[in-house]
Write a structure and sequence with these properties.
One of its GO terms (molecular function) is ATP hydrolysis activity. The chain is an alpha/beta fold. It has a single domain, classed as 3-Layer(aba) Sandwich (Rossmann fold), CATH 3.40.50. The chain has seven helices and seven strands, in the order βαβαββαβαβααβα. A hairpin with a 3-residue loop joins strand 3 and strand 4. Helix 5 packs across helix 6. The chain is globular and about 45 Å long. The two termini are about 15 Å apart.
Length: about 180
């Protein structure tokens, strides 16, 4: 378990899990949205694909995403483990709504210095809308990929509740030093 994708819908806790696992296993963590959005107005980094390719070629990493379409196969081909946070809407929606509300009200800066504005809430790109609308499709995509022979051998850890994921994470220990 050296090249890990933490997959799930927005609000599942991918970044939180990836950061915690990175600290426990002492593997480098890469936040997908920070790699992709590097400027104002949600500007996509023109070197995004190359950055992800460079990361994917290294021997150890943790990424908090199934990957944007242009880098998805690259990540899945190089991963050895997928941690799938497969939570129901009843779990993810309150999380994504609280997070987005906090970010909007406090004008928290995220990826590339951007902020979630009130107008973004009325866009189909808003995390709350996309989490709601894409829940079933994202679940189907991850399920398809976890069984696709192109990505074998791939270790899949499939968690259907935050409690399951937390219990598993508690059991992860630092690698033995040699």
């Amino acid at each position: 378990m050296q090249r890990i994708l933490v997959a799930g819908i927005s609000g599942a806790g991918k970044t939180t899990m990836a950061q915690a696992l990175s600290a426990r296993l002492q593997l480098p963590f890469h936040e997908m949205d920070s790699l992709r959005f590097t400027g104002p107005n949600w500007t996509v980094d023109p070197d995004f694909h190359q950055q992800v390719a460079t990361i994917a070629a290294t021997p150890a990493w943790i990424v908090d995403s199934i990957g944007y379409p242009e880098v998805r196969d690259l990540l899945w081909t190089n991963a050895d483990t997928v941690i799938w946070l497969d939570y129901p809407k009843a779990v993810v929606m309150p999380r994504v709504l609280r997070r987005s509300l906090r970010r909007t009200l406090l004008r928290e800066r995220v990826f590339g210095g951007n902020v979630e504005s009130l107008s973004l809430w009325f866009s189909g790109d808003h995390p709350a809308w996309s989490s709601w609308a894409q829940h079933a499709a994202r679940r189907a995509e991850i399920n398809r990929r976890t069984t696709d022979p192109r990505f074998a051998p791939l270790r899949v850890l499939h968690f259907r509740s935050p409690r399951q994921a937390t219990m598993w994470l508690r059991g992860q220990r630092l690698p033995a030093s040699g």
